[in-house]
Write a structure and sequence with these properties.
Bound molecules: S-adenosyl-L-homocysteine
Structural class: alpha/beta
CATH class of the largest domain: Alpha Beta
Number of domains: 2
CATH topology of the largest domain: Rossmann fold
CATH architecture of the largest domain: 3-Layer(aba) Sandwich
CATH superfamily of the largest domain: Vaccinia Virus protein VP39
Number of strands: 16
Distance between the termini: 51 Å
Strand content: 15-25%
């Protein structure tokens, strides 16, 4: 509560000095402010937290991604040293399950060093606890740029959505940056910069350029995609799993979530998660421009089916007690189903790779 109040007054003071700030800057302060940011101050995951993610739904998710990594490593020519990198590892659950599944591939286990990229000291502590008995060397970094160069496998689940988005609003005279200001009564409020960003439309695909006035277009800086593209283009692969759209399109997808319910992103900064959908087309194009080959995105349901989630669920059920059996069935449905309650369609999976390797597992046609 106190952290939230001080972040709120800090943002208010900033706006008083510099004027309304871009939505992306507001979100960055809310999420990763070094003292009061949402991720910095808590473990937001799980039933008792604010939201639940695929690795927290079931061990099957991390296990299958572990096996995917092993197959990708073989396709890379089984390099003797490889960095298994996870961006935004949350509680470390995906990595724990992946490493456990990898007992079947001892050569890969021996070759890998785990690198976790995590901005949150609170979550880093949870990850250390989760992975203490995982039997692998684990190193932590605040940013991907700190991970040593060389053969690499990069995994990111629900990471890009947490990278702040800029929102642009189309008006008659061009695209204007959407900002957060303060009303006379002292509340945060959305607005737009009076001047359009010069020539912004030049970077847009035609469908977005021709959108009607009032449309919102969201974009993230390309630096993460550039960095991943550069790292994978020579003996590397990456797997990005997130909710979002296959092609760039207009729409306001900024959302705040707290305690498993939608919230207002302008109320209680630092106390709720703020995310937005991933534009896979833009991400892929930026990585491709660095020399990476792009595969997908495909729907999470199809990705998991191709990796054999059904057989894995059957195997787990075969030795489970009845209550646990029901739980496995529910998790399987949640991860793969395409309806409103499932993650199977909204969540998509994109692979990026060294063009010499060919399509990674689950992406060959
Ligand atoms: N991958 C996990 C957690 C997803 S939540 C899962 O699927 O359960 C987002 C994760 O990214 C958290 O670990 C959060 O602390 C981290 N994160 C958010 N912004 C970050 C940034 N800019 N740099 C590094 N890590 C970040």
């Amino acid at each position: 509560m106190e952290a939230q109040a001080s972040l709120e007054s800090e943002i208010r003071r900033l706006i008083a000095v510099v004027g309304p700030i871009p939505v992306a800057q507001y979100a960055a302060l809310c999420l990763t402010h070094p003292a009061h940011g949402y991720y910095v101050t808590r473990d937001p995951l799980g039933a008792a937290g604010d939201f639940i993610t695929a690795p927290e739904v079931s061990q099957m998710f991390g296990e299958l991604i572990g096996l995917w990594s092993a197959a990708a490593w073989k396709a890379m020519g089984s390099p003797e040293n490889v960095r298994l990198v996870e961006l935004g590892p949350g509680r470390g659950t995906l990595m724990r399950d992946a490493l456990r599944a990898l007992h079947v591939t001892p050569a890969f286990r021996k070759a890998l060093v785990v690198h976790l990229v995590e901005v949150s000291p609170a979550l880093e502590r949870v990850q250390r606890e989760t992975l203490v008995n995982a039997g692998a060397i684990v190193q932590w970094h605040r940013d991907l740029s700190e991970v040593p160069a060389g053969p690499v496998i990069i995994i990111a689940n629900e990471f890009i959505d947490a990278i702040p988005v800029h929102q642009m609003v189309k008006q008659e005279d061009g695209w204007h940056e959407r900002v957060v200001g303060v009303t006379a009564a002292g509340n945060f409020t959305f607005g737009v910069r009076p001047e359009p960003v010069p020539h912004f439309e030049r970077v847009l695909p035609k469908s977005v350029r021709e959108a009607p006035a009032g449309s919102i277009f969201e974009w993230r800086p390309d630096n993460l995609a550039f960095e991943i593209g550069r790292r994978v283009r020579d003996k590397g692969v990456a797997l990005m799993i997130d909710y979002g759209h296959t092609e760039s399109e207009v729409g306001d997808t900024l959302q705040a979530v707290g305690q498993h319910a939608f919230a207002d992103p302008l109320i209680a900064p630092g106390a709720v998660d703020i995310t937005a959908h991933v534009d896979f087309q833009a991400f892929g194009a930026a990585a491709e421009s660095m020399g990476a080959a792009i595969y997908g995105p495909i729907e999470q349901g199809d990705f998991l089916a191709r990796l054999g989630i059904e057989a894995r669920a059957q195997a787990l059920k075969a030795t489970a007690l009845p209550a646990k059996k029901t739980e496995i069935e529910a998790a399987y449905a949640r991860l793969t189903q395409r309806g409103r309650t499932g993650m199977g369609r909204l969540f998509k999976v994109m692979a990026l790779a060294d063009p010499a390797i060919g399509p990674p597992p689950a992406f060959a046609n």
